[in-house]
Amino acid sequence: MTTKGAEPIRTCLGCRRRRPKGAMLRLVRGADGRVSFDGTAPGRGAYVCRDPECQERALKPARLAHAFRGPSEAKTELIETVVSGR
Ligand SMILES: [Zn+2]
User: Fold this and answer.
1) CATH topology of domain 9-84
2) Which of 14, 16, 30, 81 is deepest in the core (most CB within 10 A)?
3) Cα(8) to centroid of ligand 1, in Å?
4) How far is the CA of 81 from the centre of ligand 1 (A)?
């Protein structure tokens, strides 16, 4: 368990830096293997900085497959969101 009041630390999938969970976006893999940003969905999650460069790197299929331990692919909308957000 974490210390009371302390924010959990998560590792960014893109740059491997460790940051407070609140400063990051959560990625969740659906039953179909498609990955989307979702802060509340159940299941295995991965975290990435709010930095477009990190997100681009983190959304590579190989990176996602490693994080989720299985074939994973970012949803097309997700990639478009990241690219258009630069
Ligand atoms: Zn990062």
Assistant:
1) Hypothetical Cytosolic Protein; Chain: A; (3.30.1230)
2) 14
3) 16
4) 17
